[in-house]
């Protein structure tokens, strides 16, 4: 649009493409984290719709450990930037 | 998904800000539609196992309601913890 | 393309984007429904390639119940429009 | 995926109709490629469990064929029922 | 961009769209293959970080059999072109 | 994902070649981000099952490292075999 020539347009597309991928990455991370901590922490008999105390503290620790695994594997993959 | 998760837009020129904002809106809509589908899939999978009738019975309906409510509360709590970690809050035992 | 200015182009993009997401939503719904009813209804020993009577009626009820769960959760989420 | 699932195009101006139609075509191709991949994944997963040889044996091949044919018939039936529900057909026990 | 009119632009978009889908298809195939052969062949107790001899030969045969299943189902679906 | 998997670009005009190459780059970045997420998900799922503390213990950390390293080696081997099959190498028992 506001670009002066074809090459700049492609550069701009790449910047927007990168931003989009960054966002998709975070959404994907959040969704996987949410799913796996639900699987690990929540009683599937659904006797009530509230989270009980045990579930709540399990969730907090699950998120914290998932975060650490993300960082640990990020280091192994040799990425210099933090995973978010 | 919280819009604040997706980074800072203030540094962009006006035109790009509009475009970036539209992109974020689209991602949020897509994410919420997928979340809807995955919530239905999960609660159906956990609560419905008997196919002798065409309609949900009371017990299945109750199970689905609790499952969905529980998942949404869970998701909010994960979102809060996730945001804290994103902001670099210290995490100790 | 046929838009008079940048803003209108973006509006048009949004309309197409919405239509695309609506379609992706329906395809995603259909694929999840198909997968889960296969898992719930079909004998995985694959002794024959035909669906037998029990499988057929299980499929019909599974689709019907899945539809009801979609509507039920749609109501809980407070969306005013029907899920399709 | 049936094209009729994806809504009414008649109300659009000609140019947009072409673009919308192209978008639907792309979605259908993408969906059919994913379906192909997921069918292979499912039937491989259900039918192949022995890795003592490099080639499928007769029993595995038969299993894969039946699995794929059964899945396709299943998918067609689900599509029919799904279309009925989309058209607001009454559903009683 | 270099297209002479709207119709040609759409044609060009379709060609790029097709190429993109072809690539997405191959990436999707590779990712599913990798995941399923890991599930079928790898000991999840992770007693070491090396692949042992049994795992290595299982992987090779798994990839080979997955390929054959891809071709077999490709034939059933009546596609004339090879799956890659 | 190896760039050579994605076909031949030499026959395209220069402008399209640039665009196609940018598209491939984007796909590779997207694929590697998804791979990262799925690797974390898998190794977390296989190695972490105890939520009595907020931090990984030594055993969990070792398990995660081995899981990730093993998966990466696995993935490279699959990539090699996959490339051979793509090039039409004969496959006999």
From TrEMBL, chains A, C, E:
Tell me where it resides: Mitochondrion inner membrane
Q: Which UniProt keywords apply?
A: Chaperone, Disulfide bond, Membrane, Metal-binding, Mitochondrion, Mitochondrion inner membrane, Protein transport, Translocation, Transport, Zinc
Which terms does the UniProt entry file under GO BP?
protein insertion into mitochondrial inner membrane; protein transport
Q: Which GO terms describe its cellular component?
A: mitochondrial inner membrane
Task: Give the source's domain of life in one word.
Answer: Eukaryota
Indicate where this protein is primarily found.
mitochondrion
What SUPFAM superfamilies would the database entry show? Tim10-like
Keyword Transport (UniProt): yes
Listed InterPro entries: Tim10-like, Tim10-like_dom_sf
Q: How does it sit in the membrane?
A: Peripheral membrane protein
Question: What GO MF annotations does this protein's record show?
Answer: metal ion binding
Q: Which residues form the Tim10-like domain?
A: 17-77
Return the similarity comment. Belongs to the small Tim family.
Q: What does its UniProt record remark on the domains?
A: The twin CX3C motif contains 4 conserved Cys residues that form 2 disulfide bonds in the mitochondrial intermembrane space.
Q: What does this protein do?
A: Mitochondrial intermembrane chaperone that participates in the import and insertion of some multi-pass transmembrane proteins into the mitochondrial inner membrane. Also required for the transfer of beta-barrel precursors from the TOM complex to the sorting and assembly machinery (SAM complex) of the outer membrane. Acts as a chaperone-like protein that protects the hydrophobic precursors from aggregation and guide them through the mitochondrial intermembrane space.
Record text on subunit structure and interactions: Heterohexamer.
Q: What is this protein called?
A: Mitochondrial import inner membrane translocase subunit
UniProtKB/TrEMBL annotation, chains B, D, F:
Where, per UniProt, does this protein localize? Mitochondrion inner membrane
Alphabetized UniProt keyword annotations: Chaperone, Disulfide bond, Membrane, Metal-binding, Mitochondrion, Mitochondrion inner membrane, Protein transport, Translocation, Transport, Zinc
Function description: Mitochondrial intermembrane chaperone that participates in the import and insertion of some multi-pass transmembrane proteins into the mitochondrial inner membrane. Also required for the transfer of beta-barrel precursors from the TOM complex to the sorting and assembly machinery (SAM complex) of the outer membrane. Acts as a chaperone-like protein that protects the hydrophobic precursors from aggregation and guide them through the mitochondrial intermembrane space.
Q: How does it sit in the membrane?
A: Peripheral membrane protein
**What is a biological process (GO) this protein takes part in?**
protein transport
- Domain notes from UniProt: The twin CX3C motif contains 4 conserved Cys residues that form 2 disulfide bonds in the mitochondrial intermembrane space.
**Gene that encodes the chain:** LOC103716492
| Similarity comment text for this entry | Belongs to the small Tim family.
Query: Is Disulfide bond found in the keyword set?
Result: yes
Q: What is this protein called?
A: Mitochondrial import inner membrane translocase subunit
Organism domain of life: Eukaryota
Q: Which InterPro entries match?
A: Mito_inner_translocase_sub (IPR050673), Tim10-like (IPR004217), Tim10-like_dom_sf (IPR035427)
Assembly notes: Heterohexamer.
Using the record's annotation, list all stretches that form the Tim10-like domain: 23-84
Lineage per the UniProt record: Eukaryota, Viridiplantae, Streptophyta, Embryophyta, Tracheophyta
Gene3D superfamilies reported for this sequence? Mitochondrial import inner membrane translocase subunit tim13 like domains
Recorded GO MF terms: metal ion binding
GO cellular component, alphabetical, reads: mitochondrial inner membrane
């Amino acid at each position: 649009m506001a670009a002066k020539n074809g090459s700049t347009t492609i550069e701009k597309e790449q910047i927007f493409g990168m931003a989009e991928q960054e966002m998709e990455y975070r959404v994907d991370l959040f969704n996987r984290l949410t799913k796996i901590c639900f699987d690990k922490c929540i009683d599937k008999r659904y006797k009530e719709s509230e989270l009980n105390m045990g579930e709540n503290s399990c969730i907090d620790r699950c998120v914290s450990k998932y975060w650490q695994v993300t960082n640990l594997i990020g280091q192994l993959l040799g990425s210099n930037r933090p995973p978010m | 998904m919280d819009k604040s998760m997706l980074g800072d837009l203030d540094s962009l020129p006006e035109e790009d800000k509009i475009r970036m904002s539209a992109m974020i809106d689209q991602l949020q809509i897509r994410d919420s539609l997928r979340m809807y589908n995955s919530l239905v899939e999960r609660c159906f999978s956990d609560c419905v196992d008997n196919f002798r009738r065409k309609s949900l019975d009371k017990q299945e309906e109750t199970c689905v309601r609790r499952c969905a409510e529980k998942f949404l509360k869970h998701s909010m709590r994960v979102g809060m913890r996730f945001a804290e970690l994103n902001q670099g809050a210290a995490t100790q035992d």
